[in-house]
Design a protein that fits this description.
This is 2-dehydropantoate 2-reductase. GO terms for molecular function: 2-dehydropantoate 2-reductase activity. Pfam families: ApbA, ApbA_C. It catalyses: (R)-pantoate + NADP(+) = 2-dehydropantoate + NADPH + H(+). This protein is of the alpha/beta class and 314 residues long. The chain folds into two domains: 181 residues, Rossmann fold, CATH 3.40.50.720; 126 residues, N-(1-d-carboxylethyl)-l-norvaline Dehydrogenase, domain 2 (Orthogonal Bundle), CATH 1.10.1040. It has 13 helices and eleven strands. A six-stranded parallel β-sheet has the order 5-2-1-6-7-8. Strands 3, 4, 9, 10 and 11 form a five-stranded mixed β-sheet that branches. Strand 6, helix 4 and strand 7 form a beta-alpha-beta unit. Helix 7 packs across helix 12, helix 9 crosses helix 10 and helix 12 runs antiparallel to helix 13. The relative contact order is 0.12.
Length: 314
């Protein structure tokens, strides 16, 4: 019987890693990759495949199945979730017929609140923790562009059967996905969140890309202040975050393509719904809960809130 893996959300993360899986297991007798898509993306992948563009090459891949119909999708052993955080509940509700009690969820969202939200919907299922480091984006429907060499995936769980975790790790390895199965996964997820939350908040608030933030003393100072606030929050929550996390994050920022920006910033510019709730408001609310001052995060939230599309305002 084949191991069936669904990819929900074919943006930069889901599209790229899902594409690597589809390429590796195209004719596999043991693993089947299912893309869950709709609209133009569904139409294009069905006819022409999903295109992956990197600095070195372009590749077109086809999954075993691409559909948004649970009857066609079928029952899933694993579901890799990589939609925008504001779509978690609505997207997962539509897949109830494809979820069994043995389906394992691997959330690869930008925020840290997703696992608890998924457990609320599916309390009997294993929900792993996971995060990725990658600069990738949708260039056009069914076309994913990855910039730079970074493409790391981390995942783990303190409750899932080790056999399930190792089976997934083996599947990733055979697809040439640089992945790590970690015991201390919550700290790693928060380490990533510290970076992505502060970057998303700074780029969106300042309307600047990475290079512009690095080049400006005032912009760089805001980014550092956001880093310090969210790092203090993580410490108060008792997470084992590296003591040099601020310097590590700044160094990581400087190594990224200077023309790049956060996905939240791109959404703000385009006038689309954006992940303010999970990437900025969540931090402000956790600060209130744990009595950690968040003046810079609060300023960012208050500035960006009016920019939310009117029907999506928090």
């Amino acid at each position: 019987m084949k191991t069936r893996i669904g990819i929900l959300g074919l943006g930069g993360v889901g599209g790229y890693f899902g594409g690597l899986l589809a390429k590796a297991y195209k004719d596999s007798e043991t693993v089947e990759i299912v893309f869950i898509a709709r609209g133009k993306t569904l139409e294009i992948i069905s006819e022409s495949g999903l295109k992956l563009i990197t600095d070195e090459a372009e590749t077109i891949v086809f999954p075993a199945i691409v559909s948004n119909d649970p009857e066609q999708i079928g029952k899933l052993d694993y579901l890799i979730c990589a939609t925008k955080t504001y779509d978690i509940e609505s997207s997962l509700e539509t897949l109830r017929k494809s979820i069994t009690k043995n389906t394992v969820f691997l959330p690869l969202y930008n925020g840290v609140d997703a696992p608890e939200r998924i457990r609320t919907l599916y309390p009997d299922n294993e929900v792993l923790l996971g995060c990725v480091y990658i600069v990738a984006m949708i260039e056009s429907p069914a076309v994913i562009k990855k910039v730079g060499p970074i493409e790391k995936l981390f995942f783990g769980s303190d409750s899932a059967p080790l056999s399930k975790l190792k089976a997934l790790q083996s599947i990733f390895e055979k697809a040439a996905i640089e992945s790590s199965l970690l015991e201390s996964i919550e700290a790693k997820v928060w380490e990533k969140f510290i970076f992505i939350s502060s970057l998303a908040s700074a780029t969106s608030y300042l309307n600047q890309n990475i290079g512009e933030i690095i080049a400006s003393n005032s912009s760089r100072a805001l980014f550092v202040n956001l880093l310090q606030e969210i790092t203090m929050l993580a410490a108060v929550k008792g997470l084992d975050i590296p003591g040099d996390i601020t310097m590590k994050t700044i160094n990581q920022l400087e190594k990224m393509p200077h023309s790049a920006t956060s996905s939240m910033h791109r959404d703000v510019i385009a006038g689309r719904n954006f992940e303010l709730a999970s990437l900025t408001e969540f931090v402000v609310n956790e600060g209130i809960k744990y009595e950690v001052d968040m003046p810079n995060y609060t300023k960012v939230l208050e500035t960006l809130l009016p920019k939310m599309p009117s029907d999506e305002a928090l």
